Structures are given as structure tokens and as C-alpha cells.
Known about the structure:
Number of domains: 1
Helix content: 40-55%
Order of helices and strands: EHEHHHHEEH
Distance between the termini: 13 Å
Number of helices: 6
Mean pLDDT: 97
Radius of gyration: 14 Å
CATH superfamily: Glutaredoxin
Strand order of the largest sheet: 2-1-3-4
Low-confidence stretches: none
CATH topology: Glutaredoxin
Largest sheet: 4 strands, mixed
Amino acid sequence: MLFVQYPKCSTCRKAKKWLDEHNIEYDERHIVEDNPQADELKEWWEKSDLPLKRFFNTSGMKYRELKLKDKLPDMNEDEQFDLLATDGMLVKRPIVVGDDFVLVGFKVKEWEETIL
């Protein structure tokens, strides 16, 4: 399992603690130092069954700076994946990638139902 996170993010720290408490093995990846590429993001999105907007960190400063709330509706999927691949801070985190699932954000109930 791959755990994509930003160490300074309190939600990511809670998610990591949850994984550790449940003795779940994972490979850790720093979302800023090793930003997901457009093709990875597209693969994760297809596996997740989530709307593409859920992959954007809508509460982040970068999202607001770029005024993406107004721009995203006019962008096609490839443009959105390319944009996400430019900066890890634009990507919602944490992300857990398993063989047959992808979870975006940390919701305990969802993680319990999917991972345990």
C-alpha cells in the first residue's frame, strides 16, 4: 500500500498514526518532494470512483491563489491532471493507494471499511 502525505499536515499525521496503530504496512511518499505525476493521478482517480474535484486541496492557499474554484469548471480532465502534477500542495491529502482502491482524505469510517 502507498501512503502519500505531507508531514506537516495534521490530518496526514492522524492518518499515519491510525495506520501504525492498526499495524498496516505501507510505503510512505512525501507529496511535495515526490509529487504525483499526471498519469499516476489519472490512474488513482479512475480507481477511486470519486469526482476529480475531490483530488484538489480546495482549502489550500495555492488553490485560492490560483482562483481554481472559478477555473476548474472550464478545464478538461487532462488539464486538471496536468495542473495537479505541477505542485503537491494542490493535491488533497493524504492519499492511500491499494491494489483495488484509492482513498483521498482521512475519514476513519471509510478507512476502516476499506482497509481493515
